[in-house]
Fold this sequence. Notes:
With about 210 residues, this protein is α/β, with parallel strands linked by helices. The chain has helices at about 15-25, 50-60, 75-80, 85-95, 110-115, 130-135, 160-165, and strands spanning about 5, 30-35, 40, 70, 80, 100-105, 120-125, 140-145, 170-175, 185-190, 195-200. The protein contains 7 helices and 11 strands. Strands 1, 2, 3, 4, 5, 6, 7, 8, 9, 10 and 11 form an 11-stranded mixed β-sheet that branches. The mean pLDDT is about 90.
Amino acid sequence: MPAEFLKLYPQNPDPRRIEHVVRALRDGAVIIYPTDTVYGMGCDIHNARAVERVARIKGIKPTKNDFSFICYDLSHIADYARVSNQAFKLMKRVLPGPFTFILEASGNVPKLVNTNKKTVGIRVPDHAIPRQIVHQLGNPIVTTSIRDEDEVIEYSTDPELIFEKFQHLVDIVIDGGYGGNVGSTIVDATDDDFSVVRQGLGELIL
Length: 206
């Protein structure tokens, strides 16, 4: 059965459709959704079977995953990562925004998501659709980019082409309009000597 293709408007996402997505996530759905950078794929972090599905779709072993979380705001972040005062000030200044912060993971991170890693990537995108999904869900969702890391390819930005490619792999593809083709800037904030691991859309001024 092909995935559902669901239209949502970023400026004012329909709460009933958001709730529909949230119910699907609670039932173990894998979804594709827009962010403030590229389209992402993810699931509820507490659903181990769904996390395994995301890993299979990406072609990686669940224990080798490099997934990040989408959180609603900074209050969510403290539940899953240890954040120094300096890191909190920096994140408060630039989030929501196109950044992924690498932080020391707390014991609340589900084992399958984090495996043996001591760090976790945290995102608070400047985009209403994923943030409203997470807000209603009550906990973060796994996020991983669907873009090809080697070259910019068309399906990463056009939701109809994304649906065409992934309709038999995921449960819901959210059409939130054209996406970007530049990923988030990844910042190592495991200590207060902040460093940019990968330069993406976000410009970090320390």
